[in-house]
Every structure is written in C-alpha cells, then in structure tokens.
Design a protein that fits this description.
Blueprint (H helix, E strand, L loop, with lengths): L11 H14 L2 H14 L10
Helix pairs in contact: 1-2
Length: about 50
C-alpha cells in the first residue's frame, strides 16, 4: 500500500470549529495560536484575542 502525505488546507469554517473546541476546552494557548493563524490567513478580518 503506497500512501502519500498531503498538506491539509483548512478553510475558515475549520478554523472556527477548532477555535470553538479550544474555547470549550479552556485552552487559551491553543486559542491564541488559532487566532494568529486566522489573522495571517485572513488579514482583512479583525480577530479578538482571548483574555
């Protein structure tokens, strides 16, 4: 069996789902990482950092 690894390109909805999960888990470090990635990927959108 020959398998190849492919880079997954996440869409906005995917990032928002991950952000929701990180928020529900209370993982602020992961939340900030996701928000930084969103801000880089979608620079026209203003993202609010968690406190």
């Amino acid at each position: 069996m020959n398998t190849t690894l492919q880079k997954a390109d996440l869409q906005l909805d995917d990032y928002l789902d991950l952000l929701n999960l990180a928020t529900n888990l209370g993982d602020t470090k992961w939340q900030k990482e996701i928000i930084r990635k969103l801000a880089y990927t979608y620079p026209a959108v203003q993202c609010k950092q968690p406190q």
